[in-house]
Structure formats: structure tokens, C-alpha cells
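Input sequence (456 aa), recorded before submission:
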Amino acid sequence: MSAVKFSIRNYVAVIAVLIVLVMTVLDVTVVNVALPVMADKFGISDSDAVWIVTVYQLVITMLLLPMSSFGDRYSYRRCFMAGVLVFTISSVMCALSGSFAMIVAARALQGVGAASVMGVNIALTRLIYPREVLGRGLALNAMVIAIATAAGPTIAGAVLSGASWHWLFLINVPFGLVAFILGKKLLPPNPSREHHGHYDWLSAILNVVVFGLIFLSVGNFARKGDVTVNTCILAVGVVTGIFYVRRQLGMESPMLPVDLFGIRLYSLSISTSVCSFIAQNLAMIALPFMFLNSYGFSEITTGLLMTPWPLATMIVSPLAASYVERHNAGITAACGMAVYAVGVVLLISAPSSGIAEWNIAWRMAVCGIGFGLFQTPNNIVMVMATPVHRTGGAGGMQSTARLVGQTLGATFVTIVFAMTTGVVTSVRVCLYAAIGFAIMAGLFSLSRAGGVREKI
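Predicted structure, C-alpha cell format:
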């Protein structure tokens, strides 16, 4: 970064943002590992224990856009600092929880803090990094997320081997305090604007209701809940969503960024992102079943076999960021999806028995290389296609697109497993579907190549 102005102050501000980003990602992966222990502690079923993770993700999805809108109108820094404070305090509450109800409530509050941080993370990154190297900042975010995802199970195992599950939450406290102090001193203010307008509380409430009801019903359908009740919940969510969208259409800076969807480059990038994360989750969730049940690998070996994917993404992301500083990001992202699809084809064509671990690991790495080659260029296009003062809304929608894709991918896996017979057949159907969505993502990306050349 020597060719551009990037001070020590900028570097430390980046550290503050990345610390909290790691915390929010780890609090999904580490808690997943601890669910059996926590189920036993609270005397609940495994299906009930899943709510400890689900409520955290659900609250984040419901609040991402309202928090992004707050950041756009008032201050990304204030939203970030409030989020860090809420997340840290709620981590202590999680550790002190003596009942299932209390930890679910604490995890919901933790989701509020995480949404406040995630909703403005990309906006702060855009303000911290000079335009010339913004791609490297977004690549660093992707790399950190990949590291946290890959390291989460290992960290959880290490903590649980020598301490109780409470420490999975308490370790957030010192890091949260450091991030709060650094952020308060070093994070940049919003660019000046003539007027901010009033915060749209009604839109915030509608957003919470729409995303909350729709994702709750989708999750319940996947878990084979009561069809009538779930249909009613979904119907209310959809009807409310129609009213919500119509209300946003007449606004200058809407909470749901329908104004940004008028930018062809941005709308294509969002579509690309949703399809790509559906493709990713279809494979990531289905493959462990094949490794465990078809190949007969142990749980530890299965976990290790999943690791090459995020590690490859971690390595390739910064390289892709440097590459697209000189080359077309739309074409690069499309090539990434093509490589990903090749990786999935290689997994499908792997021997059905007697395969060595290394022979699976390199195929997983190909998938990770493809996704790393795709993710950073796609993020760059999404950010650079929008006005600076709408970066919060754009970033919030980017995170929402990721969560929507991941949720739909997980739901599709559940449906496929319920409708097919045999693990091998189910996994293959999921992998073929992953290839289909990867191709869709690649085509969306190619269709924006001309616009990328003009905009970036």
C-alpha cells in the first residue's frame, strides 16, 4: 500500500473493525460445537438447543438493514461502537445464563450487537481505505471471515477441552473492550451531507416483521413444523413485505435499498451473491454427510476435510483483490464461479469408496479457490456501484444477500434430504443443484462485465 496514503491510524482502525468481525463470526461456529454440551447443561433436546444458534442469526437478519440505515443517516462509527458495547455486554450475559430462556434472550441481544457491527462494516471499510486499494480491504475482510470460519471448531474444541462452555462467550470481553477503545479514537466520521432526515422507525419495524416472519417460517418448514401455522406465518410475512416494499418506493433514501436496485450493476451483483451463497451452502452442508456415512470417515477427519475450502478462500481472496485492480472484476468473479463448479464436479466424480483423504482435500481446495476468486471481486463491484452516502444501505443489503443465500441453501438441503432416499443420492442432488446455482451466478456476473469496465 506504499503507493497510496495509508497511515498507522488507518491500520489500527482496520484492526478494530476486524477484531469485532472475528468475534461475530466465531460466535456462530464455536457455539455450534458446544450445542450438545449446552443441551445437556440446560436439560433440553438437541432440536431445542439449535435455537441458541438460530435466534442469533435470525436477529441479525432482521436488523441488518435498520442498522445500516441508522449508519447512513447519522454515524457509522456510533452504530459500530454501540454494537460492540451491546455484543460485549451480552457475551457476559450468555456466560452467566442459568437457564435456557436466559441464554436465548442473551443470544438475541448478542444478535442486536452483531447486526449493528455487520450493518456498517463495509461502509467503514470504504471510509478507511483509499479508493485505489479498497479491494484489498474487502479481501482482508473475506480472509478474516474465512480464517474465523475454519478456526472456529478448533478454538471451540480447545476451550471445551480445558474449560466450561461459559468461556466461549467470556473470551469476547477483552477483545470487545480493545475494539471499543480503538474504534472510539480512530474510526472515521461519515462524509458530510446537507441533511440527514428523520430515522424511519415504521420501516424499521416492518423490516423486522418481514424478515423475521419469512425466515422463521422457512426454518420451520425445513424442520417439518406444523404446515398450517407455518403457512399462516409466511403469508403474513409476505403481505407485510408487499406493503413494506411499496412504502420504500417513494423514499429518497429507503431502508430497503430499492433505489440502489435501479442501478443495474448493483442489482446484478446482489443476484450473483444470493446464487453463489446458495451454491456454497448446498455443498458445505451436504458434503459432511457423504464423508461420514458414505466414505466412513470419523468426525475429526470430516472436520479436517472441510478445512481446505476456507483456507483456499483465505489465500486466494487477497490475490484476487490485487488482480482486479487491473482487470475486469465481473469477468474475474464469473471465472471464480466456473472454477467452483469444476471443484464440485470433481467431488461428484470422486471414487465412491476407498478414496484417500488427500484425494478429497485437493478437490475441496479447488472449490475454495473458486469461491475466493469470486467473492472479493463481487464485493468490490457491489460497493463501488453505489454512492458513498448510501454505502451503509448497500453494505447491509450485501450482508442480507449473503444470509438469504445461506438460509435458502440450508433449506434446500433439508428439502432434498427429506424427498430423496439414501445419503449418497441426497448429497449428489445437492451437489448438482450447487453447480446449477454456480452457473447462474457466473452468468449474472458476466452480464455486468461491460458496466464494471465503465464504473470501476
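Checked by second reader. The chain has 19 helices and no strands.
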